Every structure is written in C-alpha cells, then in structure tokens.
Amino acid sequence: MIYPQNSLQKLGFDDIKDSIKNFCISEMGRGMVDKMQFMSNYDQINKFLRQTNEFKNIIENDQPLPIQSFFDIKRLAEKARIEGTFLSEDEVFQIYSSLQTVFAVIKYFADREGQYPNLEALFEHLPIEKNILKHIEAVIDVKGKIKPNASRLLSNITAAISKAEQEARKKIDQIYKNAQLNNWVADGSLTVREGRICIPILAENKRKLKGFVHDESSSGQTVFIEPEEVFSLNNKIRDLEFDKRREIIRILTELTNQLRPYVPILLSYHGFLTKLDFVRAKALFSIKIEAEMPILLKETRLKLINAKHPLLMLNHKDVGKSVVPLNVHLDDSVRVLLVSGPNAGGKSVAMKTVGLLQIMAQAGLLIPAAPESEIGIFKQIFADIGDDQSIESDLSTYSAHLSKMKYFTEHTSGKTLVLIDEFGTGTDPLFGGPIAEAVLEQINQKKSFGLITTHYSNLKLYANHAEGIENGSMIFDNVNLKPTYMLEMGKPGSSYAFEIAQKIGLSPKLIELAKSKISVQQRKIDTLLVDLERDKKEVLDAKIDLDRQRRKNNSLLAENEKLKAYYDENKRNLIRDAKLEAQQIIKNANKLVENTISEIKENKADKTVTQNLRANLQSELQKNQIKPSEKPKAKDEEEIIVGDWIKMLDTENLAQVLEISKDNLIVAFGELRSVVKKKRVEKVSNKSVPKAVKTFGTSSYTDTAASFSPEIDLRGQRGEEAIAELERYFDRAVMFGFSNFKIIHGKGDGILRKLIRNYLKNYPQVSKMEDEHVDRGGDGITYVYLK
Fold first, then answer.
1. Does some domain include residue 281?
2. Which parts of 333-428 fold into alpha helices (H)?
3. Boundaries of each Smr domain copy (predicted)?
C-alpha cells in the first residue's frame, strides 16, 4: 500500500513507467506497463525480478530473441469468435505473423533448455498448435495476400481477368497508335480515369473518336476518352473483379470458420506475447539505467550499495554528467535515518532515491545499485513530500503535513517504510520542532522504518540518544564551500547557513550581525559539526578503500576454495576409477592364467602347445595394461523416437510422442497436447500401454475441438440420462476452453430445467446461467457462461 497515492508521482514512479513504455513494441505491452504496481508478495516479486534479469542477460550475452511481429491478436480472436464474421487479409496475416513469433521464441528457449527457467515458465503449459499456420498458409501468401489458387473458382476468375485485361490493353494500344497517326492525341500517354484506361484527346478532335468521355483537363483543351471498342471489355473486367471480391470473401469466411475453434489457444498466445513484450521492455530499461538484480529478502530491511536515482541518471547522461552514488542501510538496529545538512546538498534526492528504488524493486524492476544490495519487503510506504496545500479543503501547507502525520502515527507498523521531506517545517520552529519530535517518537515506538530529512536541532539531539534512530548527514566541502552529495551515516550535519551566505557574497558585516543573534551554545554545536565533518571525510575515504580491498580478498579466497574443492573431487574420482579398472584387469588376468594352466595340463605340457599358450598369455596381458586415460563406458540410454509411448516420472501418466525438438518432447495426453522435458519422462513398451489409453490417445485435439458444438439438446431425456450426457459435454467444453454454451431442455413443467441448473451450480467453473431471448426459445433454453 502506498499513501498518499500521489506519492508514486512525486517519487517519480510514473515517469519510470513512461520510460518503460517507450521500449514496448505493442499496445498490449504498454497496457501491461500501466498496470504495473507496488507488490508485497515475495514469490511474485522474485519471479518478476528473475524474469527481467534473465531477459537482460539474453540481450547482453546471447543471440537476440527472434521477435519479428507483435499484433493484438486478442481483438482478432474475439472478432473471429462471432459466427458469420470473417477476418480480412491483413487481419489473418497479423495472426500468422504473431504465431510465427510465438513458435520461434519457444524454439529459441527449447534450444537453451534450463538456461532461463523463469522465462521458460511463461510458456510451460502453452499448447503448440501449428495447424493454425497450415490453415492460413493454404490461403494467404508470404506477403499477406490471398493466393490466386486459393480455390479453383478464384484461379479461373484470376485467369479470366488477366486474359480480358490483355485483350483490352491490346485493343486500346491499337486505337491509341491510330489516334497518334492522325494527330488527335494531346501531349502525354495513356492514363487512368475512374478506374478506366483512357486516351488523352485534343478537345477539337473529341468527335473524331467514338467513346465515353470520363474527364477533361482544367484548361478544357484535353478530354480523356474511353474508346467504344474497349468499353465492353472493361465492363467485363469490372464484373470479373466483383466476382473475385465475392470469392475472396467466401474464402476468408471459410478460413475464419476453420480458425474459430482455435480462439482459446489464440488468446493464450496473445497473453504470452503481451508478457514477453512487457518483460523485454523492463529489461531494455534496466540496461539503459545500468540496473542490477538486488538480493531479495523476506524480512523488512534494506541495504543500498552505490545506488543512483534512475531519473537523475538519465537526465545527467544527456548532459554528460555523473551521479554521486548513495550508500545507506536500514535494519533492526538502525530503523530510522534522520538526514540533515545544507540546502541543495542532496538530502531530498537521497530520500527519494531510497523510496523510488524500493517501489521499483517491489514492482518487479531491477534497480541501479550494486548486485550486493539487499532489498526487503515492506507492506506499506508512507510519504510526505512537497507542498500539498488545498484551497478546496481549506488546508494550509502545514495543515496538510499534519493531516499526513496523523495518518502515519495511526497506521504505521513494523512493516512500514516512512519517507518525510523537511520534517516539521511550515510553522514556527519553536512549536513545529516539538510536534515533529513527538511524531518521530511515535513512529519509532511502532518499530517502523524510515528516512527523514530535517534542519531541526532538537530532532538531531533526539536521534542521538533514541534507540533505533540514527543521524545522517550530507557531506559538505567546507574548504571550497560546495556540496559533495555524499550521505554519511552516524552523525548529524550542519546547515552551513553562514558558509553558504558567505559564498554567494552576502556582506561580512551582515553575516557577523546574524552570528551575534544566535546563542553561544548553538554556535559551538554548529562549529563542532563542521570540524567533525572535515575529519570524518578523511576517515570515510580510507574506509571505502579498505572495504574495496577486503571484498577483493574475500572474492579471491572464495575462488581458491572452489578450485581446491574441485581438484579434490577430481582426484577422488580418478583414484576410484583407477582402482575399479585395476581390479577388473587383475580379475581378467587371473582368469586367463588359470585357463592357460588348465590347457597346458590337458595337453600334457606339449612343448609347441605350451609356447603358443605363453605367447597368447603375454599378448592378452599387454592388451589389459592400465591406461589412466581409459574410462568405463556408460550404458547407452534407450532412445525415444516419434510414436513411442512414455510415462511421466512425477505423475505416472502415459502419453504418446508426436514430435521431438532437441531435449523437448511434444506429446499427446489423450486429446490434449503439451511440451515436456526428456529428463522428466521414461520410455515404456508398447505392450504395457492399456488398449483403452491407445484408443483414446489416437484422436486429435484439434479435430475434436473443431467438431465440438456449442450447444447440447437434452429434450425428451430422463433426468439421469440428461445429467450423465451433460456431465460428459461439460468436461469437453471446459477442456476446449469455451467461454459459453447453451442447453436445449424444453419448457414443459420446468422439471428438467431445474434439475440441470441445480446440477451446474455445483461447478466452480460456471460463472452464470440465464434464459435464452424470448423470441429464440425463452426459458426452454439455458445459456451457461464459464469463467
């Protein structure tokens, strides 16, 4: 939950969404970006982050995804669903192009099985139905136009048009040449007027050429005449064009009827393309802002390392400037960070950076921070930023701030992140300071987290001794009198009011007068803060360098440990394999020696035979010498081919292999098709498959879906018979993804109607039921709508 709602706009999240939409290539993707919102479910956030990170890795390190065309096929599928409608050539081609993208992307990930598991989950249960492409390819060519031979009649009409056009052209060419010889023709060549080929004739010669005058030039000196001899041929061509258009509409209507059963699958493909475009846009935006995937935590805490405000980065990049990184952490020991320091020193930017990056991460976006950064999950983010005065509500700036403070103190909890800019300002500091301190104490008592900016000294003093709150300051270069925009945790910061006033040229006399008007104690505190800041800057630089060296050493140690473990494991494996091989060789040698001795005894130590046996023994022993490079061969795995029956290892379900694509199998579970991994299945013998399974598995999903009728007639049946038939029909309707169907049960006494409706109420898939229109059967027909 974000409060108030305009905090998303003030923190810049709306601008982030607008930037992401610029990377979308479809209106569907842009619509999904608009719906992107702050989430608090760990699994959902983790899934979105990993999908974006995997797509980013593809863009940066792999071959580009074969994304060619994205079209709104949901709109086209909804149009095709309506009986009697037909899709135009362009609309059919948009479906075709989109499906080519779908299948190309699925193949891309199939070739890289296991590399991008979170992106593979987008289409894990997506059916692959290439019959849709076959239906379209039979009618539409590669340019998206109807093929001339899409039907026999269309082929005949096309040939007739071509022949008639040739005759008309030949005839008009003859007449045109004759007119040229007689000097009747005006300057120019044959031209088209109102879809007809005409000859430009000088106005004074228009009576010399018989024909129909279609037009004349603006000056009236030239008329455009269609010769009489060509007129009938052109009329014939026009009639043939009408016949061709009617035949094309008939072909498109028939094609749309063939595609209608696939509407549920087309909607699934639409959803896949939309998600793909959405994730792609997020990944491209992540690359632009140099974002990384942080470590996602279930608890409420955060640690940002080298974090940058993404919008500030984009703005600075355009003008060639860099952004100073932010390092900040909030955990159980430091839940609230109170940031002070000079005006224009970066306090507000630091606070907005924390808020915006937290919202981005919990919306599934990568953030511009080091990958070692940690992001916890907050249930609520409360923000008080800027001036919210309202003339309509009669609220002043301070009243608006107090209204928010009231809400914060009443609703904040240990899972809330509070962001407040310029805490306590807007009224007399004498009274605003104590009120702000009371609010801060209340927020702290509720164990909330937060980042708050202020200039009030009493808040700095309270944060210094309050458990759970820590001071922070924006480092200021008091030598050159300019801000460094670096946040330092652990101490409050000075406002540097006098130093900044001196830099901008305020009179030294005026500055001294101002200093004399503040208390001695306050002056000492401010001077002490300035000196502390100068000293701690040197310590901070040394600490950063030390941390860098420590991380480098830790990385080298970890790498050495991995290499040592790898070599130790290799050594153990080599020794084990060598021992096994030596034992086998010794065993074989012993057997060979025993056989040799036995044969010598049988031959009674015949000298010739003994020599031959000794030579054979020596030869066999040399063959079996131990060679370190040899390894026992693994038993060949049984190969799976198209037509084999397999068993799912996790469900024990039987299916038949239809296609094989590298490590993926396209299998049929009865009338359903799906994609499974080879490693998740086991080949079974044909004999072990029950006959009933084989019979059911031979039917085609698409054929059955195409012949499935969206209505069932139960008139005249007894109650039990009707319910049994309805149950079988209902299962198939759900399986094929139909959104509605109608049941014809007749009126009578209404007994069968009541029985059917009571039965269907038990199914959670049923959305609603209603009577047919009175003119089409009324309460004798029930319309059933599925979720």
1. no
2. 347-362, 397-411
3. 712-787
Phi-psi region of 404 (alpha: psi -120 to 50; beta: other; left: phi over 0): alpha
Domain membership of residue 301 as a residue range: 295-517
Task: Say which CATH number the domain at 494 has.
Answer: 3.40.50.300
Q: Is the pLDDT reported for residue 754 higher than 80?
A: yes
Structural domain includes residue 33? no
pLDDT in tens, 555-594: 788 877 877 777 777 777 778 777 777 777 777 776 766 6
Tell which of 517, 545, 568 closes a domain. Answer: 517
- Residues marked as binding for ATP? 341-348
Q: Could you tell me which of 248, 257, 181, 193 has the C-alpha nearest to residue 222?
A: 193
Higher pLDDT, residue 725 or 606? 725
CA distances (Å), origin 640, targets 114, 457, 467? 20, 77, 66
- Let me know: does 405 contact 384? Beta carbons within 8 Å: yes
Q: Are residues 369 and 476 in the same domain?
A: yes
Does 652 lie in the same domain as 750? no
3-class DSSP state of 416: strand
Asked if residue 516 has pLDDT above 70, the reply is: no
| 448/356 same-domain check | yes
Contact of 421 with 384, CB cutoff 8 Å: yes
The count of domains in the chain is: 3
Residues 341 and 458 in one domain: yes
751-762 burial code (b ≥16 CB/10 A, e <16)? ebbebbbeebee
Whether 27 is covered by a domain: the verdict is no
The Cα–Cα gap between 11 and 171 comes to 75
Report whether pLDDT(409) > 50.
yes
CA distances for 328 relative to 301, 375, 423, 442, 454, angstroms: 11, 12, 19, 23, 17
pLDDT of residue 548 exceeding 60, the answer is yes
Residue ranges of the annotated binding site are 341-348
Do the domain assignments include residue 402?
Answer: yes
Peptide bond connecting 371 to the previous residue in cis, omega within 30 degrees of 0? no
Q: Are 340 and 472 in contact (CB under 8 A)?
A: yes
Cα 509–chain centre separation:
64
168: part of which helix (H) or strand (E)? helix 152-181
